[in-house]
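Q: I'm writing up a methods section and want to include an example of the input and output format. Could you take the sequence below and give the corresponding predicted structure tokens, formatted cleanly so I can copy it straight into the document?
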Amino acid sequence: MEILITTPSFGQQSQEPWRAVEAENLTIRRPEGQHPLSADQLAQEIGGADAVIVGLDTVDASVFAAATNLKVVAKHGVGVDNIDCEAARRAGVTVVNAPGSNSGAVADLTLGLMLALARQILPAHQSTQAGRWERFPGIELSGRTLGLIGFGRIGQAVSQRAKAFGMTVIAYDPYLPADVFTASAAQQVTLKEAIAGADFLSLHMPGNAGDAPLLDADALGTTKKGAFIINAARGGLIDEDALVALIRSGHIAGAALDAFSTEPMPRDSGILTTPNVILTPHIGAFTDRANAAMGVMIIKDVACVLRGENPLNPVV
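A: Here is the clean output for your methods example:
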């Protein structure tokens, strides 16, 4: 059975996924060139592959039409907004992902970004590195309110960490029952309340290509003056132009973004020259443990599908 692996991060930090490949006796093919692949590029690469493991590549109806043997698409990660799941269903192709595999990794990054914003760690480093000895006043997380938009595995992991810093947590998630919030000692609120009540507002919702930003100009305008925005989820969730305008006006104190509406980010993007912004290249899931867990989970599910068995983590 041939598996096309397009994402360069598969097994990048751990040998465990490769050992899983050997144990399942799978043949691997990897394309040359830059990741992610467009739908046209992936359609040209897919050939007779029985399975494809993707990262941020676009998987639409044209890919399924070009595939001759495809039985399963596996997302090396959690969010499947780059995969047309309805087209997969029509083509009779199973889609699987790796839920929970990167929760701790993304939660750690989120807290790191919050601390970096609160204590001005990056400008302090750059100043000291340049030979200056300046003071950079900061704020403490203790006593501040963290607003979480999305309270699934990652949101709950962020909440747990924030509680250890003495923060009050408010959270919005329309898909979860009230007892989930109660068990995590987080206050369940509406979306408007989460946006307006947070000193730090962190996004942990899935996104869908083509959807309007969840935090558009109007929503961002209702944030507290001096609030910070963190996005380690999906870039399309935020109107980046509106965010830039509100940071430059002084209404929003700063932002830390690990996901962007276009990736890689265009060099003329206004966010690149905006002060009080931390930008990272979608590294939330890039830890040793997440890389191991993610790769092993999807290899096991790919093998299940190819044997005609039910996968553990089906999306479609």
